[in-house]
Amino acid sequence: MAIDYSWEHSAPSGTEVHFNNIVGNIDGVVSGLWVSSDGGNVPGTISAEQVDATNNWWGDISGPKHVDTNPGGTGNAVSENVEYVPWLTRDFETVFDDNI
């Protein structure tokens, strides 16, 4: 899954990403855009814009790893300016099946 932004004059604002499986990412969420790859963490942001990434599955029930706000998280890591609480405690396919 990828959301691609291109802009000439200003960065996008109000970005929201919900109900996705976020597992095995190298790049992941960068403020203002979403990049999906294999294996790693979510790097530093490129702007001060907050990304709403709530209600996503981060690869583990403990949620994403964040050094300050969720150091016990063992899912894919996130950086600053990523709002990730609440997160899904089951992968999206399981949650989706329950709600059909």
Task: Describe this entry's structure for a reader.
The strands form three sheets. The chain has a two-stranded antiparallel sheet. Strands 3-6 form a two-stranded parallel sheet. Strands 4-5 form a two-stranded parallel ribbon. It is flat, with a radius of gyration of 13 Å. The chain has 100 residues and is mainly beta. The chain has one domain (17-41, 50-100). The chain has one helix at 92-98; strands at 28-30, 33-35, 51-52, 64-65, 75-77, 82-83. The two termini are 22 Å apart. β1 (28-30) and β2 (33-35) form a beta hairpin. The protein is built from one helix and six strands. 7% of the residues lie in helices and 15% in strands.
Write a brief caption for the model.
This protein is mainly beta and 100 residues long.
How many structural domains does the protein architecture include? 1
Order of SSEs: EEEEEEH
Main structural class: mainly beta
Q: Please state how the strands of the largest beta sheet are arranged side by side.
A: 1-2
Determine Rg (CA atoms, Å). Answer: 13 Å
- Topology, number of strands: 6
Mean pLDDT: 68
Residue stretches low in confidence (pLDDT < 50, at least 5 long) are: 1-9, 28-46
Q: What is the number of helical segments per DSSP (H or I, 4+ residues)?
A: 1
The geometry reads as flat
**Percent of residues in beta strands:** 15-25%
How many angstroms does the end-to-end distance come to? 22 Å
- Specify the helix fraction band: under 10%
Biggest β-sheet strands, sense, barrel: 2 strands, antiparallel
